[in-house]
Write a structure and sequence with these properties.
single chain; alpha/beta; Collagenase (Catalytic Domain); Immunoglobulin-like; 2 domains; seven-stranded mixed beta sheet; 8 helices
C-alpha cells in the first residue's frame, strides 16, 4: 500500500505539471478519489441503490460520532479547537441543506435539493469508554505524513484509527502540495485506514478565498459515504455517478462557472458538493445522493448507528459535569429532568437545535423534577442547557 500511495502522488505530480504546461488556470487540488478508484478497480455498480434497505429506514436522521486526529509536523498544522468546531458546524449545515447560499442553485435543480439527515458529533467516549472531546493531537517528525501509511499508525508517527465500525475517523495532516485530501469508499481499504484525510490548508473556515468554507471536507465525507464525483470522464456520456437525479456530466468544473454548462445533453450540476468548483460555488446535495448515503451506511457502515457516544453537536468543547438526568431519550412529548439530589429553585432552560438555533428559553420552578413539553418541536437532535450544564436528546 505504501508503494501505491507513492504511485498516486506521482500521477498527481504529472497532472499538475501537465496543467502548468498547457496553461490551464489554477484549480482545486485533486481529492485523490479517482486515482484510488482506478487502482482499486472498484466498480461503481458495487454500490448501487438497494431500495429494500432504504424502505426499511425508520429514522429521521443519523448521528455520526466523529474523532479528529490532528497529526501535525509544523505549528501551523496543529489547528485550533475553534477551527475544528466550525468545521463540524459546516458539515452539519451543508449536509442538512441549511447553508444560506443554497439559494444560488438554478431553478431547474431547486426541486432536487435535499438535506441528507446526517448529523456529525464529536465523540464523547473513546473506544475504551474514557471521556474525550473527540480530538486527538499527535506531533510527528514526518513531513507530508498525509500521503504516507505512517499516518494511520501511532507506532509509525501517526495516529491509530478508533474502531472504524463505530466512529468516523478524520485525519487532518499535510498531504503535500498536490492533494487536498481523500475519503475512503465503503470497502475500499483496510479498517485501520478507513475514514477521511484532509490537508489542514483546506480545513474549516480558514479565510482562503476559494477553498476557505470547509467544503473540501464536505466533499471527502461524501466519498466516505459512497458518493462519486458527479462527472464521469466518459466521452460517450454513458457512465454516470450511480445517482438517479444528478445529470450525466462528462467532465469536472473548476472555479465558479456560470449556469448553464452542458457537457452531455443536460445542464451540468456543477454546484453539487461532489464537483470540483470553488467552495463558494458548491452548495447542494440531491435527494438521490441522500438515498445513496443512507443505503451505504446501512449496508457498509451500520456500526455507526449503534454508537451513541456522539454528543457534541454545537460549540460545546468540554465535557460538562452533568448532575441531572433527562428522560425519556429519545422523547416524544414530555421531557422529564430529574436531579439526583433535591435541588429546588428557579431554573433557566434553553433548548437549541443542532444548528444552534434557540427553540425554547424559559424559567421554570422545580422541586427535584421538571417536566417540559416538547410537542411543538420537529423531530431531530437537540441540546438542552440548564444553567451552565448541557445534554443532548433526540425528539421523535
Ligand atoms: Zn473527490
Amino acid at each position: 500500500m505504501q508503494n501505491q500511495i507513492v504511485v498516486y502522488l506521482t500521477i498527481l505530480l504529472n497532472l499538475s505539471i501537465g496543467n502548468q504546461l498547457s496553461g490551464q488556470t489554477e484549480q482545486r487540488a485533486p481529492c485523490g478519489q479517482d486515482f484510488f478508484m482506478q487502482s482499486m478497480a472498484i466498480s461503481k455498480h458495487q454500490f448501487q441503490l438497494d431500495l429494500n434497505y432504504f424502505s426499511a429506514l425508520q429514522r429521521s436522521q443519523i448521528i455520526i460520532p466523529v474523532v479528529f486526529h490532528i497529526v501535525w509536523n509544523t505549528n501551523e498544522e496543529n489547528i485550533s479547537d475553534e477551527l475544528i468546531i466550525n468545521q463540524l458546524a459546516t458539515l452539519n449545515r451543508d449536509f442538512n441543506a441549511q447553508n444560506q447560499d443554497v439559494d444560488q442553485v438554478p431553478d431547474e435543480f431547486q426541486s432536487l435539493i435535499s438535506g441528507t439527515g446526517i448529523t456529525f458529533c464529536l465523540a464523547s467516549e473513546t473506544p475504551s469508554g474514557q471521556p474525550t472531546n473527540g480530538i486527538v493531537r499527535t506531533h510527528t517528525n514526518i513531513e507530508h505524513i498525509g500521503v504516507k501509511d505512517n499516518l494511520f499508525f501511532s507506532s509509525m508517527g501517526g495516529s491509530d484509527a478508533w474502531n472504524p465500525d463505530q466512529y468516523l475517523n478524520i485525519w487532518v495532516a499535510n498531504t503535500g502540495p498536490f492533494l487536498s485530501g481523500f475519503g475512503t469508499y465503503p470497502g475500499q481499504t483496510t479498517p485501520k485506514k478507513t475514514g477521511v484525510v484532509i490537508h489542514p490548508t483546506f480545513f474549516g473556515m480558514n479565510g482562503h478565498p476559494r477553498y476557505g468554507l470547509g467544503r473540501t471536507l464536505v466533499h471527502e465525507v461524501g466519498h466516505y459515504f459512497g458518493l462519486y464525483h458527479v462527472w464521469s470522464n466518459d466521452p460517450l456520456c454513458e457512465e454516470d455517478d450511480g445517482v438517479e437525479d444528478t445529470p450525466k456530466q462528462m467532465h469536472q468544473h473548476t472555479g465558479c462557472p456560470t449556469h448553464p454548462q452542458t457537457s452531455c445533453t443536460e445542464s451540468d450540476m456543477f454546484m453539487n458538493f461532489m464537483d470540483y468548483v470553488d467552495d463558494p460555488c458548491m452548495v447542494m446535495f440531491t435527494a438521490g445522493q441522500k438515498e445513496k448515503i443512507w443505503t451505504n451506511i446501512y449496508q457498509f457502515r451500520s456500526g455507526l448507528l449503534s454508537n451513541t457516544t456522539g454528543s457534541y453537536c454545537i460549540n460545546t468543547k468540554q465535557k460538562d459535569d452533568l448532575s441531572y438526568v433527562i428522560s425519556p431519550n429519545p422523547v416524544t412529548n414530555d421531557l422529564t429532568i430529574s436531579f439526583p439530589f433535591q435541588e429546588d429553585g428557579i431554573f433557566d432552560i434553553q433548548i437549541y437545535d443542532i444548528l444552534g438555533r434557540l427553540h425554547k428559553d424559559q424559567k421554570t420552578l422545580g422541586n427535584g423534577q421538571i417536566v417540559i413539553s416538547l410537542q411543538h418541536l420537529e423531530p431531530g437532535l437537540y441540546v438542552i442547557i440548564i444553567g451552565k450544564k448541557s445534554k443532548t436528546f433526540v425528539k421523535l
